[in-house]
User: What shape does this take?
Amino acid sequence: MQHLLTGFELDQDGYHQIISLAQSMKAQPKEYRRLLDGMSAALMFEKPSLRTRTTFELAMFNLGGHGVYLDLGKGDLGVRESVADYARNLSRWVDCLVGRVFKQTTLEELAATGSVPVINALSDIYHPAQAMADYMTVKEHLGKVEGVKLAYLGDGNNVANSLLVAGAFLGAHVTCFCPLNCGPDVQVFNKAKEQAAKYGAKLDVTDDLSLLKDYDVLYTDTWVSMGDDTPLEAVKKVFMPYQINEELVKSSNASLVMHCLPAHRGYEITDAVMDGEKSVVFDEAENRLHIHMALLATLLNPNRG
Ligand code: CP
Assistant: This one.
């Protein structure tokens, strides 16, 4: 793996290795303090972030390196200077580009024109590091990912896409319950299905909530993605049947409730569920740090291979 742009760069072993390394780093962080000594990453953010920005910066620090945060929220990337020239400049100074961008094509251009690894920290289509932290959390709580039944409820966004991709490689059974015309990206879904066939995973999309029975994990995310100005109230009627509330948790028999955060309490998830005993949302948030450390170590480790 040279870059992490979509999650399709890895095979099943690659996913298992990164999750295992993240678990080892979580258990024994001191063992890894000098791994990326003197190395650096540019953290390029076109959109706001709490978890991703904090944990990538800390991940570099925890491995002995340094993260340089670049606030690109004013639309500088590709305007003040071309995306390619950003990549060419930054590649002379840092060992990795971490990008949270509006368009997946921006990450692809950074990877094509720069000379250092590029990591997707969220785009319009994918959020691969999020999905890795989520499946690490599932493994911690249920002891495995293979065969685990995960129901994603709500908008078929970048997080849903990446849960399908990573779930396919890890042998999970992922069903996206989404309102009509709000499902995950069709191309991503079809490509993930090809991988699912190899690894015993099952992927489905439906709007039929009567099928939501006997799932191990319920997962949701915001109904309106970052950068979309649609008020939540405007989509509430369509999405409210997919809200994770106590009644839905009970009827599904799920043992875990997940949310990548930030949550819109009272919309896609209720307070009672988010703060309830089945919620592992802050474990997911914590695991972002460990997964980012494992990803950076895998892509940048000067001693590898
Ligand atoms: N889940 C997630 O990516 O959080 P941030 O937007 O705060 O980074």
In short: The beta strands are 40-45, 66-71, 96-100, 118-120, 149-153, 173-177, 202-206, 217-220, 256-259. The chain has eleven helices and nine strands. The first strand starts at residue 40 and ends at 45.
